[in-house]
Amino acid sequence: MSAKQVDINKWEEIPCECGAMASRSTVRYRDYDVRGWICKKCKKEYIHPEDSLKISKLEALKKSRVRVKIRTVGQSLVITLPKVIAELYGLEKGETVELSPENMKKIEIEIQ
Length: 112
Ligand SMILES: [Zn+2]
Fold this sequence. Notes:
The protein is an alpha+beta fold. The protein has 2 domains: 11-64, no CATH class; 66-112. The chain is 21% helix and 39% strand. Strand 5 (70-73) and strand 6 form a beta hairpin. Residues 16, 18, 20, 39, 41-42, 44 line the site of zinc ion (ZN).
């Protein structure tokens, strides 16, 4: 017998503890807007487990920070994004990001 894999990203509704159904919505979790479900009846909020995990990883990275070395490719300088960062933000080769210089010591990278 083979177990069927479920894709909860397709779940528009999930059963709530109160017996009613919770509909897919954006839920506020810590300081983030994440995927989740909100119960129509009791207003209880459920957080998407993938987003909950992502936030835990993000919070851990914020605390430890990530140091990378600058390399060169031809005339350009290259900053490598470690795998943990690439996975967290869903970044892949060939994607474009936007760099915004914040001040003389900080550059912000925005994912498109
Ligand atoms: Zn409920």
